[in-house]
Amino acid sequence: MAYHSGYGAHGSKHRTRAAPDPPPLFDDTSGGYSIQPGGYPAPGADVAFNVNHLLGDPVANVAMAYGSSIASHGKDIVHKELHRFVSVNKLKYFFAVDTAYVAKKLGLLVFPYTHQNWEVQYSRDVPLPPRQDLNAPDLYIPTMAFITYVLLAGMALGIQKRFSPEVLGLCASTALVWVVLEVLALLLGVYLATVRSNLSTFHLLAYSGYKYVGMILSVLTGLLFGSDGYYVALAWTSSALMYFIARSLRTAALGPDSMGAPAPRQRLQLYLTLGAAAFQPLIIYWLTFHLVR
Amino acid sequence: MNETDLAGPILFCVALGATLLLVKDSSIRFKRVSFPMWFLQSALETQNAAGKVQFGYIYGMSAIGCIGIYALLNLMSSSGVSYGCVASVLGYCLLPMVILSGSAVFFSLQGTIGTVLALVIIVWCSLSASKIFISALDMEGQQLLVAYPCALLYGLFALLTVF
Question: Which residues of A touch B141 (CB under 8 A)?
């Protein structure tokens, strides 16, 4: 991946020493390394922060080089393990967004009633990235909305003098657990309703993450305008989100060749989307009402 | 942009910590103590800051924030970015926050003017950080998208400064 090459190309002294191959454990001056017992390169030529100057001790120098080689080795292991579970290229599709898309999508989440065409567009059986298609799901908005929700919950608790880091952690992990449960339920529903579907786990994660935008709006309105404002905002965002989810999932579950599925399967799909849509206001209320007491 | 230079960011973090020590210590500013005693006392006071947010949480959260921005930039840009580059850019753009905490020595930030100043400084920091990122990584039309998570991160620093 690109960041490996970027790592090796840096100009810091101690990194270029460690990058080629692991240094020997012993101070081997015959090996062509520039580790010398007494002298170091002229300080004037090196304006970057060089830890070796501070230590001034060849053994510590070798230890530092060894440590950084261990660190890079560990980093490689982490990358390999991560790539086994998460396909980064598929994930990159969901983050190919730009500011215009995000602005329009946020507007759509708050007011979806005038939008006409809900179909995801394809180009030769490959779905278009979110930059070029407003209907494509993305993961930038759900991620940012989740983080903002956690910070906003911390702020709301702080304003009510109920803040402590444990409560914040509890809030964050509760929200995360509900997201995971909902994605699993949706996956099960999709598996039961259709055999072949275009909805991968990340799609479902995106759709279930859009509710955090509604939650943030409700909490903000509740903080600014009190309990009545909270309930009004809750009702508005819940209905908008239900409409959005119902319309999006109905067209997204079909593929690029949207032939009519057999009738019972279509009915199952309909029940699935309606169930997912109806679940949203419940979860929004559950996760926010304790913040706007 | 290929050189990871952490000298500036570390200097700014030290300056931020020093000005924060001055701020937290303003309650005993007018007592007559000798300079070494004052430094030690303020260091101990911040250690025993019961009821205030612990510094350890803030450092941990900023490290996690740096990792989060590193992950986000790698996913959003076509070319990857290294962690050192992210840390160095974020650290350099922390400089206006030092101005904020320096001004906290002279007047309390808890009023309206303090909130407005903190918001202006957060916007300034995050816009400059996002500008550097998108010009270095050649990302088009994504400046506000990169600025938002940076603003969240600098908001955490501002919270530390104001409260």
Answer: 98-100
